[in-house]
Amino acid sequence: QVQLVESGGGLVQAGGSLRLSCAPSGNIFSIGVMAWYRQAPGKQREFVAYITIGGRTAYADSVKGRFTISRDNAKNTLYLQMNSLTPEDSTVYYCNADSLGGGTVYWGQGTQVTVSS
User: Fold this and answer.
1) Running DSSP on this structure, what letter comes out for residue 89?
2) Residue 40 — φ and ψ, nearest 5°?
């Protein structure tokens, strides 16, 4: 079993930056792909970015060029560096991890990001 705990959310002005972290605990060596999602009230959870163990990344078009996902494989800690934030980025961000070989998906509890105009 794996538990994911996000941190780093908060309030920032438009154009500013935040760095989110996701620290797993439990059977961290079972973790494969890690990702960030976000979900606004009343909307579906949407993909933000993912990163494989080997470092391959992918981003949603809405954040490409502004957000950078990274991970520390020694700790299996996941990061999301968010630059040039806009009010449209305001929502709850969730850490996601898949088990190696697939089959199990883990979610964190979410961290709120608020960007003021």
Assistant:
1) G
2) -90, 155
